[in-house]
Amino acid sequence: MIVAFSVTPLGVGEDVGEYVADAVRVVRESGLPNRTDAMFTSIEGEWDEVMAVVRRAVAAVEERAPRVSLVLKADIRPGVTDGLTTKVETVERHLAQ
């Protein structure tokens, strides 16, 4: 499964990059395939391991922010691996034609 999620600290002002970095650090230290862009961090793995990482990422932000917003989107597709790479490669292949 692939989960794309965004953790946003609330009540800490406009500059939230430092807080978001805490969440992304948790994801990167998990060892699971992941990718971060301007809006979301995507992570790939089995349900329990991915959700545990999301929970820890939220907890990292909760430690310093009075309120946290979580947006999550999941692609649950058993048997598929390396979706973070292959989905993008498919789109790029079509764009190149």
From TrEMBL:
Domain of life: Bacteria
NCBIfam families in alphabetical order: MTH1187 family thiamine-binding protein
InterPro entries given in the database record: MTH1187/YkoF-like, Thiamine_BP, UPF0045_domain
SUPFAM superfamilies given in the database record: MTH1187/YkoF-like
Organism: Streptomyces tuirus
Domain Thiamine-binding protein span(s) in chain numbering: 3-92
Homology family: Belongs to the UPF0045 family.
Protein name: MTH1187 family thiamine-binding protein
Alphabetized Gene3D superfamilies for the sequence: 3.30.70.930
UniProt GO cellular component terms: cytosol
